[in-house]
Design brief:
Elements: H1 4-14, E1 36-40, E2 43-48, H2 50-56, H3 58-68, E3 72-78, E4 84-90
Antiparallel strand pairs: 1-2, 3-4
Helix pairs in contact: 2-3
Length: 96
């Protein structure tokens, strides 16, 4: 059986120079995408990459926390180039 992780790796390896539109309910399917559109009630409520959406979209943060587990905490850390980076800390290991 092929796992979601193997499918994501295949897409990344074989379609790296191709525009790919992926419709997904699982946040792990889109976390590495260059651009993510977040929809709520049929409307686009957020656009950006994972880090930008964690910072700017309450809907995306809620989805992230609900799918990744209650123990996930989100931290914002400013790097030396003055860009926002997001790191997660898990209280318990997550099994995907």
């Amino acid at each position: 059986m092929i796992t979601e992780k193997e499918i994501r790796k295949g897409l990344k390896d074989y379609l790296k120079d191709t525009t790919t539109i992926l419709i997904a309910q699982r946040i792990t399917s889109v976390m590495d995408a260059d651009k993510i559109l977040v929809m709520d009630g049929g409307r686009i409520v957020g656009i950006g990459n994972h880090s930008e959406l964690i910072d700017n979209s309450q809907v995306y943060r809620d989805i992230y926390r609900s799918q990744m587990g209650r123990g996930v905490r989100i931290y914002w850390i400013l790097d030396v180039r003055e860009h926002l980076q997001v790191f997660q800390e898990e209280e318990e290991p997550l099994c995907l």
